Amino acid sequence: MKNKNNFLHKLILQTIGHEKRQHYMIPVFTILLSLLFGILVIALLGKNPLQAYYNLLQGSGLAPKASYAGHKGMITDFTSFLNALTPMLFAALAVLIALKAGLFNIGVSGQMLAGCRLHRYHSHRLLRSSGSDRQAVSRPDRLCHRRAGRCTGRLPETPF
After folding, report:
1. Confidence of residue 5 (pLDDT cuts 50, 70, 90)
2. Which of 59, 71, 74, 97 is the most exposed place for a label (fewest CB within 10 A)?
3. What's the first-to-final CA gap in the chain, in angstroms?
4. Number of neighbours of residue 108 by Cβ within 10 angstroms
5. What span, in angstroms and rounded, lies between the C-alpha atoms of 22 and 16?
6. Which of these, 66, 90, 89, lies nearest to 77 by C-alpha position?
7. Which positions ≥6 away from 118 have C-beta within 8 Å?
8. What pLDDT was estimated at residue 43?
9. What is the pLDDT of residues 46-86, one digit of tens each?
């Protein structure tokens, strides 16, 4: 048993511990570890982990489904996945930039919510005032969303 643990310890140190490979092996190892932990949790719940991960790929448009409603296909699923992923990527980028600048910003989700609420309010108000002209919404909406994010970033922390 001790020999087996020693082998595993040496293998992990050789793959992750090497300085030339650390910048890509640590994220790969973290992703694999999280996938294994997900498999364990799903198996403990009594479900098939492979089917769960395959359904995840189907929902994101990376694996084919048995049938598609409304004559839609994998491309439609993939583009809707990208549509939902884009704001999250920008939020992660905002956190990354703040961390690189030496700031610790944990309020990104609240900033996104405040920006979305102000965006929705502003676009509905603008649509009501201009009829149904949707072209008039694009530029003011973007400016409104930016202002809301900036304003909530400056707000002091308030206890609720």
Report:
1. low
2. 71
3. 53
4. 19
5. 6
6. 66
7. 144, 145, 147, 148
8. 95
9. 999 999 999 888 877 788 877 766 667 777 778 888 888 88
Q: Provide the sign of the torsion angle of the four alpha carbons 11, 12, 17, 18, taken in this order.
A: positive
119 class by beta-carbon count within 10 Å (0-12 exposed, 13-18 middle, 19+ buried): buried
Is residue 41 within 8 A of residue 53, CB to CB? The reply is no
Q: Which two tokens stand for residue 140?
A: 């003011």
What tokens does 20 get? 């030339």
User: How far apart are alpha carbons 68 and 133 in whole angstroms?
Assistant: 32
Residue labelled with tokens 């359904």: 55
Do 38 and 29 contact (CB within 8 A), yes or no?
A: no
pTM value surpassing 0.70? no
Query: In Å, how far are 29, 53, 71 from 65, measured between CA atoms?
Result: 30, 13, 12
Report the length, in residues, of the chain: 160
Q: Is the pLDDT of residue 15 over 60?
A: yes
SS3 131: coil
